[in-house]
């Protein structure tokens, strides 16, 4: 009877090796899925952080424009078209879209003034749009528009203090 028991043990040992291999494969697949979820979570948290920061810079830009409008009406009235606004909140003329990183070494902030806007929400007023763009690994391309594919936009309408629309 002893040889029969040895054969039975040897028969189970091969089956146990297959079970261990399947269990290890399942563990490795689970660990790989967890690693992928961690990478996605980190990527999403970085995106949300950048989005929040861009919204803050857009709000800061709009507050600066509002301050300018309230404290220096002639200068505010002279602005028209696209302007770049850097870290120091100074406006510099732009021929088209701003293409140089000008805020916190990561963002591009642009302010667009549209006098006597035809926009239904800003009819006859000065429409001001502050756009903050940033890039991530999800952005592709070589030109600035493609590399900075994310943006935060704020739009406000401004009247002159007399209640009349600002015009040139």
Characteristics of this structure?
168 residues; alpha+beta; 3 helices; 5 strands
Commentary on this structure:
The protein is α+β, with helices and mostly antiparallel strands and 168 residues long. It has one domain. Helix content is 48%, strand content 20%. A five-stranded antiparallel beta sheet has the order 2-1-3-4-5, covered by helices on one side. Strand 1 and strand 2 (91-93) form a beta hairpin. The chain is rod-shaped and about 90 Å long. The protein starts with a helix and ends in a 10-residue tail after the last strand.
Annotate the secondary structure layout.
Layout: H1 2-71, H2 73-78, E1 81-85, E2 91-93, E3 108-114, E4 126-134, H3 144-147, E5 150-158
Antiparallel strand pairs: 1-2, 1-3, 3-4, 4-5
The helicity comes to 40-55%
User: What's the gyration radius in Å?
Assistant: 30 Å
> What is the residue-mean pLDDT, rounded to a whole number?
86
Domain module tally? 1
Report the β-strand fraction as a percent range: 15-25%
By DSSP (H or I, 4+ residues per run), the number of helices equals 3
Instruction: Name the shape in a single word.
Output: rod-shaped
User: What class, by secondary structure content?
Assistant: alpha+beta
CA(first)-CA(last) distance: 110 Å
